[in-house]
Design brief:
The chain is of the alpha/beta class and 909 residues long. It has 29 helices and 20 strands. InterPro entries: Acyl_Trfase/lysoPLipase (IPR016035).
């Protein structure tokens, strides 16, 4: 039933992962008991192993319930496996030389069958810290399968780590094969490096990383009585401007509610005002408490003297504050008049040449405003002193209440003003709190490295690269031996880009770009293809890379600037600022951690990543498509840059991939897959399923997932609208035929995962355990040839129904004009372009409208291919007709899995 929680979860996870790497003596001497192997941990509970190997014996059933085993249950057979930190756990699938899928097509039938049986794709859903579920799920799957991986948001983080681990494992496989598969002793691993979060190559290193995050090796008995280190949360480090507000978020995550208002006040930038108000309020209270009318509640004489001194100081400050208030109010009025005259649209004025002119510094006015607030509050305090001296007791208590209300009002105004300032200037800080690689002075061996620094180092270590080397997509495609200084030729690179099946390890990530409102897929297309497809390649601003805040480590920034010789001077179309742009590296040389950073930019938490695209000049037309002119010149926007002037560019903002596709399982799907694509998704416990932490439905089970608790308040309704808008396609696809039986759902409580960065280690361990169970169930299910073939049979039934419908639709269209002429083999001389504006295009020296006619060198081969493709469709459609003209209902479409999928043309991201 429910997976283990609490401190027992850490012990169970320790048992599943196994001992620390050789050479790391953190476990201490373990005493061997009867029947116990030397070096194992006697205190570690075997409960998780029992859950994974014999769940019928290990799981406890709530009172009043019983469990009925399905017939031919997969888990009836006991299959003991090595722990996840033992390299022997991942050797079951390396019995054939590792090739790319394209190369495997030339294998002998038996070898190809073995290749397909030991291959799988894995896609993981986004979810911030819920991503701790995924690494050990992938490790469990990797026991029997070689992997291609993909994901979005936190799923992208886990996918990148898994791809690096797969690359490292394949490198180790090759080394073992060169030594005739002799068992190698595990190399020693520096315990100090392990303590600082460094790992070994391959999937054992991925298990090392999760053990480090859960602090499993910090105590000799696995019970972890030491103080919480919050290693996961401490990797999320905000930079200077975002640190105060991030402190508020951390207080909420750690449920220190008393600290939230204090940190929120301090985060607004009004510390001096708030401090002065608090001091003044304390002085006023002291004056009231020491008054003769206080009677029995009066304070001791010493405090009364101090209160009197405070009152005198308050009077003096009130005089100065009152004068400052007049000056500040006058300055604000003048500033308001100037703002009205200048207009509300620009915070910057533009000089004659279009360059922005900065406003005058605002700090003097801000200081005066603060002094004004202090003066007002201290004036109120002076009034309290006056009433105290005149023995007006009733008026005194009215003044006390009024002062308290004034204090609350002023604090509220200060908070609102600070919050408005934060929201107004959010774009200056990337719309987020955490850059990712700040503070940049963290050393490579520092245990307190920021998240992106730790990720970059860990990726290189998992892939088995030299220390300090950056993992690039080329390492995944060609192996760990890829040399960026001597890359393969252009033909090999083009093959890798055009055909993902040519890659040894295929990593697919998605990110969202909010200016254009679209998704980008990584690995990114080449610059030439982007220009042809989107009109522009993507560029980085050199000043963004150099000045910070740093979104990626220094070594990664150096790689991103590799094409600095091709830098481009451009003018931002919105701000009119001059920027120096450098194109992104070639796709093969793009750092993997940079693509992960783009995909895992959780809005509000992580700062968005800015890049640029070149904006081409376009002609402006009226509502009927006619070209507009001014003074005899065609109007274009943006204007064509004059000779010597920089081209125009537009700033783009990249944020979390989950905004556009939070579960991109379609990345690896094909109509007739050679091997399964696994999915690991996240969800809340539906009503009635509280005891089921991991759910793996059968393909004949429910047609949709059990729904969670739906709130009755407006906030819940609006949140559901947002979730539906961005996730309905993913949700529909999860229950397509052949999909629902290969997606494991890991369920969480409200205090687990999400944005809970500071989860206790036992909670992190419990989530990791659920990942272990999900991965083990997927692995065990698809190790069964019967289930794998059933899934492929279902996919073929659905695909044949689609192909039948597509063939009949195309054949019907070929019977009427104009397609018979297009497909006749007689190429057209020309195609209509834009006759209404063709003359204008000629005058402006613009390229002609594309006609997509076949090049002369390709005509013979092209029309042979057309006839070879379409004639069988005509024959098929004819055979599918009865004696009359009406088509016979397709046998291929009868009794197919529901809901039936459909084939349609959609943009490839």
């Amino acid at each position: 039933m429910a997976v283990i929680r609490g401190s027992q979860a850490r012990v169970a996870l320790f048992q599943r992962l196994g001992a620390a790497p050789p050479g790391a003596q953190a476990l201490g001497p373990a005493k061997s008991g009867p029947g116990q192997a030397e070096g194992t941990n006697p205190a570690a509970s075997p409960v998780l192993d029992r859950i994974l190997e014999r769940p019928d014996e290990a799981l406890k059933t709530p009172d009043g319930f019983a469990i009925s085993d399905p017939p031919e249950w997969l888990w009836t057979e006991n299959k003991s496996v090595p722990p996840l930190r033992d390299s022997k756990a991942y050797r079951e699938s390396d019995h054939i030389t590792r090739l790319s899928p394209a190369e495997s097509r030339d294998l002998a039938p038996e070898d190809r069958k073995a290749y397909d049986k030991s291959s799988a794709d894995v896609t993981m859903k986004g979810g911030t810290t819920s991503g701790v579920v995924y690494p050990l799920a992938v490790c469990e799957i990797a026991r029997s399968f070689h992997l291609n991986v993909g994901g979005a948001s936190a799923g992208a983080l886990a996918a990148g780590l898994a791809a690096a681990a797969e690359t490292g494992r394949q490198e180790q496989d090759r080394q073992r094969q060169e030594q005739r598969r002799q068992d190698l002793e595990e190399p020693s691993f520096d315990p100090e490096r392990r303590e600082n979060g460094h790992v070994r190559p391959g999937f054992v290193g991925l298990a090392d990383a999760m053990a480090w995050l859960c602090e499993l090796d910090d105590e000799p008995d696995g019970l972890l009585r030491s103080k919480e280190r919050y290693r996961l949360g401490r990797m999320f480090q905000a930079n200077g401007p975002g640190r105060p507000l991030f402190g508020v978020a951390v207080a909420v995550m750690r449920r220190r509610w008393w600290l939230v208002p204090v940190r929120f006040v301090l985060s607004t930038g009004w510390r001096s005002v708030t401090g002065s108000i608090l001091v003044t309020a304390a002085s006023g209270w002291a004056v009231v408490a020491s008054s003769p009318q206080a009677g029995a509640t009066s304070m001791p004489t010493v405090l009364s003297v101090l209160a009197a001194i405070g009152a005198i100081i308050a009077l003096l400050v009130a005089l100065v504050g009152g004068l400052a208030a007049l000056v500040a109010i006058g300055a604000l009025v003048v500033r308001g008049i100037r703002a009205v005259v200048r207009g509300p649209w620009s915070d910057q004025r533009q000089g004659p040449d279009g360059d922005p002119v900065k406003d005058e510094p605002r700090r003097p006015v801000r200081r005066l405003a603060k002094i004004a607030l202090v003066g007002l509050v201290t004036a109120a305090a002076a009034g309290l002193v006056a009433w105290w001296l005149t023995d007006a007791a009733d008026l005194l208590w009215v003044a006390v209440v009024g002062g308290m209300l004034a204090y609350v009002l002023l604090v509220t105004v200060a908070l609102a003003a600070g919050l408005w300032h934060v929201m107004r200037t959010a774009g200056d800080h990337g719309f987020g709190l955490i850059p990712g690689a700040e503070p940049s002075e963290a050393e490579i061996d520092d245990a307190s490295r920021p998240l992106l620094c730790w990720l970059s180092d860990t990726l290189s270590e998992l892939a088995g690269l030299e220390r300090g080397e950056i993992l690039r997509f080329g390492h995944l495609w060609w192996g760990a031996g890829y040399d960026p200084q001597s890359p393969p030729d252009d033909h090999a690179t083009t093959t890798m880009m055009d055909d993902p099946r040519s890659r040894l390890v295929n990593l697919e990530l998605v990110t969202s770009e909010v200016v254009q409102g679209r998704a980008y897929r990584f690995p990114l297309a080449t610059a030439e293809e982007l220009k042809e497809r989107d009109g522009s390649a993507l560029y980085l601003d050199l000043s963004d890379l150099d000045k910070g805040p740093h979104l990626v480590p220094a070594a990664v920034r150096t790689v991103l600037k590799a094409r600095h010789a091709e830098q481009l001077m451009a003018t931002d179309i919105r701000t009119k600022k001059q920027v120096t742009l450098v194109p992104l590296p070639d796709p093969r040389d793009l750092p993997v951690v940079f693509a992960m950073r783009l995909s895992m930019s959780l809005p509000g938490l992580f700062q968005a990543v800015s890049m640029y695209r070149v904006v081409a000049s376009g002609d402006v037309r009226d509502e009927f498509g006619r070209t507009l002119t001014k003074n005899g010149v065609e109007v274009r926007y943006p204007p064509e840059p004059s000779v010597g002037k920089a081209t125009w560019c537009e700033r783009l903002w990249f944020t979390d991939g989950g905004v556009t596709s939070n579960f991109p399982i379609h990345f690896f799907d094909s109509p007739l897959p050679r091997w399964p694509t696994f999915g690991v998704s996240l969800s809340k416990h539906p009503p009635g399923y509280r005891s089921q932490d991991v759910w793996l439905p059968q393909d004949w089970d429910l047609k949709s997932a059990p729904t969670g608790i739906f709130g009755s308040n407006l906030a819940a309704f609006l949140g559901s609208i947002v979730n539906t808008a961005r996730g309905w396609r993913d949700n529909e696809q999860m229950f397509m035929p052949g999909c629902r039986g290969r997606i494991a759902w890991v369920r969480q409580l409200s205090d687990e995962g999400g944005a809970n960065l500071y989860m206790p280690r036992d909670r992190v361990a419990s989530m990791c355990l659920r990942g272990v169970v999900a991965g083990a169930r997927l692995r065990r299910r698809f190790e069964s040839s019967e289930y794998r073939e059933r899934a492929q049979w279902i996919r073929m039934r659905a695909a044949l129904a689609n192909l039948d419908e597509l063939a009949r639709t195309v054949a019907d269209a070929l019977e009427g004009e104009p397609y018979p002429g297009f497909a006749s083999g007689t190429p057209l001389a020309t195609l209509p372009g834009d006759p209404e504006n063709e003359n204008a295009r000629l005058r402006l020296n613009l390229p002609p409208v594309p006609t997509y006619l076949v090049a002369d060198r390709d005509k013979k081969e092209y029309w042979m291919a057309v006839r070879g493709l379409l004639e069988p469709l005509r024959t098929y459609a004819t055979a599918r007709r009865g004696a009359g003209a009406a088509p016979v209902d397709g046998v291929l479409s009868r009794n197919t899995p529901k809901p039936a999928p459909e084939l349609r043309q959609v943009p490839r991201i």
